[in-house]
Each structure stands twice: as structure tokens, then as C-alpha cells.
Backbone:
């Protein structure tokens, strides 16, 4: 059984994951309208990833006999300033999410919830991958100063990303 505090914090994270999903879907819409179809695809896959992260929390709360509480999703930004700016904001956001996951882990430790600690470790590891993947793309974009032929090739590459549900593997 989850403690009330643990349940509340896990529910807050469901909301944060859905906010992230909306955030990236909004980026996808922006990039699509800017003619960056590859970037739009990458962000759409990122959106799907965030939904899978939310659902993993959802299923876990149910599995532990808790109550899921779906809260309103706050508005997300709509416009950015090109692909470098998009990936800078993505990196900043993922660093923030890493902090949220660490806070959740702190709560699990304080509540002596060893099961939740084990569950949350998946997210700790996932965040390492999230940050490093985004950092790599950002480095490449900076190499080509976010323009010209280099941008064309990076955008093409971003178009190759496909969604793989990592919560299931
Ligand atoms: Fe759910 O990892 Fe990104 O935000």
C-alpha cells in the first residue's frame, strides 16, 4: 500500500509527464509549421514517450492499490526561435524533470517505501538517456550553427526517429 504522501507525489508526476507530452507536441506543431519535418517527427515521438512515462506511473499507482488523480494540464508555450532554441529548451526541461524524479526518490526514501524506490530507479536511468540524447543533438546543431546544409542533414536524421515503448522492454 502506498502512503498518502507517496500517492500524492506520484499523481503529481503523472501530471508533469502529461505536461511534458503537451510541451513536446507543441514543439512538434511549431517545427512542422517552420518546414522542419524531421524535428517535428522527433518531437512527436518524444510526445509519445512522455505519454508512456505517464502511463507507467498510472499503472503503478493502481498496482499498489492507490488512487489515480488526473489533474488539469497547464498551458504550454507555442513558439520558439529555431531548432537550437528548441533543443536548448528541451535540455533545460529534461534537467528539471530529472530534479522532479530525484525529489520523488527522496520521498520514497523518507517514506521507507522500498518498492517505490525500485520502481523509480527506472526513471532515474531513463533521465540519464533523455539528457544525453538531447545534449548530443544540441551539440551537433551548434556545430553547424543551426543552419544551411548541416541543418538540412540533421533535420533529415531527426526524421528517422521511431517510437519504441521503452517502458515495456
Ligand atoms: Fe518523462 O522524461 Fe522527459 O520529461
Residues:
Amino acid at each position: 500500500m502506498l502512503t498518502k504522501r507517496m500517492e500524492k507525489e506520484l499523481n503529481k508526476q503523472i501530471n508533469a509527464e502529461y505536461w511534458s507530452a503537451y510541451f513536446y507536441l507543441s514543439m512538434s506543431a511549431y517545427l512542422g509549421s517552420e518546414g522542419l519535418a524531421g524535428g517535428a517527427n522527433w518531437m512527436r515521438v518524444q510526445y509519445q514517450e512522455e505519454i508512456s512515462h505517464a502511463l507507467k506511473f498510472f499503472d503503478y499507482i493502481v498496482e499498489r492499490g492507490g488512487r489515480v488523480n488526473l489533474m488539469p494540464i497547464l498551458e504550454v508555450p507555442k513558439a520558439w526561435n529555431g531548432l537550437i532554441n528548441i533543443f536548448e529548451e528541451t535540455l533545460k526541461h529534461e534537467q528539471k524533470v530529472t530534479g522532479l524524479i530525484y525529489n520523488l526518490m527522496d520521498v520514497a526514501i523518507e517514506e521507507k517505501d522500498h518498492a517505490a524506490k525500485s520502481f523509480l530507479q527506472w526513471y532515474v536511468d531513463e533521465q540519464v538517456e533523455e539528457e544525453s540524447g538531447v545534449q548530443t543533438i544540441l551539440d551537433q546543431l551548434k556545430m553547424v550553427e543551426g543552419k544551411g546544409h548541416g541543418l538540412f542533414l540533421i533535420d533529415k536524421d531527426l526524421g528517422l526517429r521511431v517510437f519504441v515503448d521503452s517502458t515495456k522492454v
